[in-house]
Specification:
The protein is mostly helical. The chain has 10 helices and no strands. It has one domain. Helix 1 packs antiparallel against helix 4. The N and C termini lie far apart (48 Å).
Amino acid sequence: MAPFPFLVILLVCYLIGAIPFGLLLTRLAGAGDIRQTGSGNIGATNVYRSAGRRLGILTLILDMLKGALPFYLCQKYFPLNEIQIGLLALALFLGHCYPVYLRFKGGKGVATALGIFLVMNPLAVLEALLLFVFIVWKSRYVSMGSISAACVTPLLIFMHMKSLPLLLACLLIGLIVIYRHRENIERIVRGTEPKLKL
């Protein structure tokens, strides 16, 4: 695909990924600015804790879809090579983490990455999801489950797809997810990280 049209596609995908559904939903529901409550994060976990289960689940679904749908449609309707597909995944993911609409202060990217990975390789996501559920069930820490899944998903995708460009893109996504959970890691070490109530 020609460089200029592809750059336009990347920009559009970034802008889609940057849509802050958690913030929009909580404001529409009259729950205020989610950035001022709980952990201050715009993602599904903080929405769940601060504004209720329904809004939390809806945020999770929409954050996944904004990664999955553009990623799927672009591959379906444009002739992209593996490097371009990897860049596309990064654009969507970075849009969520560093949204221009919120002065580049966004979420941790777990749900959006999940949507992207689900389109890329559903089997790898299923395997990582089993690990996520096990870790959360044993520890009650959603952040620990997310970090664990972020560590193994790139390797699982590479095992199934044998693509070096996709491996590098997924590794970068995984490293950013872990980096953006650094405060959670510190709280887990101190024993002050909120546990999920099941």
